[in-house]
Structure formats: C-alpha cells, structure tokens
Amino acid sequence: KCTSYFMSLTSAINKSLSSAVVANRLSEIENWKILLLEAGGDETDISDVPVLAAYLQLSGLDWSYKTEPSSTSCLGTVRNGARCSTSKAFLQPVKTRPNLHISLHSHVTKVLIDPKNRMAIGVEFVKNHQRHVIRARKEVILSGDRKTKLLLMLSGIGPADHLQELRIPVIQNLPVGYNLQDHIAMGGATYLIESPPECLPLGAGIVLPRIFTIDSLMRFLRNHDGPLYGLPFCEGMAFVNT
Questions:
Q1: Which neighbouring-strand residues pair with 61?
Q2: Domains assigned to the chain
C-alpha cells in the first residue's frame, strides 16, 4: 500500500501536462509515498528536436491517437531551443527521490471504488502482460487527457445509459467527457513566400531532407542552433480566455 497513490495515463512523449507537476509537488512531502503509473515509456532523443515534431505524430509515441473533429485544439514548451515536456522539466530532476516510485509501461484499466461509500481505494493495471492491483491508503489522483475519461467510464463513472449498453455496473451517473476539448489545429493553408537574401540559395522553406544534414545535426548538438531548432508548425501561440 502507498500513503498516497498517483497515476498518469498518457503518451510516452508528454506523460500528461499535469502528472509530472503533481508528482513533483506531492513528493516534496517526505513522509508521503507516491506511485506514478505511466502507460508509456521515456521520451526518445528525437522528441527534443523542434523541427521533427510532426514526424512523431500518429506514431507509437502518441499511440497513433486521433480524436473526433473538433472546433477547439500546441507544439509544446521549448527550453534552450529544444522541446521540453513537463516530464523533462518536473519529473526527471526529482525521479531519484526515495518516496517517489515511477512505473512505466503500466496501463491502468480500472479504478477500484468501494461501492458502499463510493471512495476510490486503488487501481488495477497491466504491465508486461500481467495484471496488478494496487491499493491506496490516502487517495487516487487521475491525471491525463482523453484516456482519463475512458478510465472513469470503465470504472463505472459516466453516462448511465452508455455504461449500461456496455454492461458496466453504474456507480455514478455523470456526463463524463461531454465537455472534452482538444487543442486548436489549423491545416491546409498554402501560400508562396519570397525568400530573403540571407536564406539563398536554399530558400526559407522547411524541407526535412534538405535541412536534416550532418552539419545541422552537429550544430544542434554542439552549438544549440541551426535549422533543427526551427518551429515551422507553431510560430505563434496564445491562450485566450473565452
């Protein structure tokens, strides 16, 4: 059993925007034991390269996941020119804390809920094709995006009619997932530009086979500059309170 139990259900790239932050903050309390269950693994080195962000989409690193079309949908944070997930910023620096336990490739399948008082008492998860059950003395914290809604419904919390269709015992009838909003994304805009003189003769366009060279790779690794640090997919970003 853990004094405090913490769980994440996200991709291998980002490990959820909030999970790493929460695990970092909770483990500051030395007499609390934190278990972070992560469905994915560690980020690959290629995920650091800003210009290759699109290369990782619809790959094993993001579970090749697609949502339904939405009117609402970011490349992510950049630190010292390279992409930086919240895992790298908040989890990697504290992963050796003795009270923080991180289990990767641990796919949580259900939150265990006491039917009498409706309190979460643990979870079950699958790792290495084996089923495990973990119970918490304090609390279970879900931190994720799309999969959190799915997990709640698999655990009996969600729209009663939908759960009954799937023969899932209803613990609490709630409109889980009804207000899910994805990141804004715009695609298909095509336009011509006139390359400035300093970009000639190659031009100002981003063509991966042309910019991904030994020279650009060495500039990225040694000098922290060059075309691989470009952000061609997200030059501007804003959070608007609507």
A1: none
A2: 5-43+85-173 (3.50.50.60), 197-229 (no CATH)
